[in-house]
Design goal:
Component of the MICOS complex, a large protein complex of the mitochondrial inner membrane that plays crucial roles in the maintenance of crista junctions, inner membrane architecture, and formation of contact sites to the outer membrane. It is a single-pass membrane protein. Belongs to the MICOS complex subunit Mic10 family. Pfam families: DUF543 (PF04418). Component of the mitochondrial contact site and cristae organizing system (MICOS) complex. By secondary structure, the protein is mainly α. The chain has one domain (20-68). The protein contains two helices and no strands. The protein has helices spanning 6-38, 45-67.
Length: 70
């Protein structure tokens, strides 16, 4: 049976957090861009808000994931 070290588990959690952050940021960026183009006359604030929400949700998920092991 292969033995997993705590450092390896932490590394996997951090990798998952980084990939989740990239996906959520990208999703918020795309949604903000769509809303900006369709509804808000190409303003920048929907893009910034969508990206910020994506990063905030990813941060919350990462914090919960990393603190669950304590």
């Amino acid at each position: 049976m292969a033995q997993t070290f705590a450092e390896d588990q932490y590394g996997k959690k951090v990798d998952r957090c980084l990939s989740d952050t990239v996906l959520k940021f990208g999703g918020g960026l795309v949604l903000g861009s769509v809303f900006s183009l369709l509804f808000f006359k190409r303003r920048a604030w929907p893009i910034i808000i969508g990206s910020g929400f994506g990063i905030g949700v990813a941060y919350n998920n990462c914090e919960r994931s990393l603190n669950a092991s304590k």
